[in-house]
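<tokenise_the_fold>
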Amino acid sequence: MKTLSGIIRLLIFSFLILACSHNSKLQRGQFQSREIVNRTTEEMLNHYQNAIYLEGDFQLERLEKDQWSISTGTEDLRHTFLISGFDSPADINMEINSVYYLENGLLLNNNLFLGVEGNIDSRLQKDLEHLTSMNNSIRHHKIGKLVHLWSPGDDPDFKQPTPQELRARINRIDGHDGDCEQGGEGATSCSVTSSTGSGCSVSCGSGYYACCNETAFGPNDCHCHSDTDQNVID
């Protein structure tokens, strides 16, 4: 009996250690997933700017009433996706185990598609049908802006952006007046990658153009600029 009791205590202790270790990893903003590339997706993903397919564990956080962030990390890169400007009230609070990023939309768990309004062309529609195996029950939401941020997974200086920093990235709008390294007036999307391997991309809905700049210090800048110089409606 003493031996059995000792084994049980050891198992409980081991479980607590693993749980604490997992929670510590989540608190540091480092999440585990893996990038999936196979014959059925490789050619498709090459159609899109910085497209990626991830499976694993994700952190979903509501920043404001219709602003969300989805974060994860692989052995190579850490990813954050920012979503805002839903066409209707949306609650996407769910456990996420897979994400397709297709430049102008995110497919979550193969059953919820968040597409940037005005940027969904016939090719994306066709690819979406293929990815979901013609699933007629898939839910659709139109969104106004989609930002993808990435950073090398082994960067010791990397810090998971705070909710305040993420809100600022979603809402940022200023007077570039077309002064963008990538994108500019008339562009619906753009992307920039720095020499350190970090980068960002953005897709902007109707009424905005995409603007991307590499910054000398801190994270790169990818945001949507209003065509009419009015405030962003989120």
About this structure: The mean pLDDT is 80.
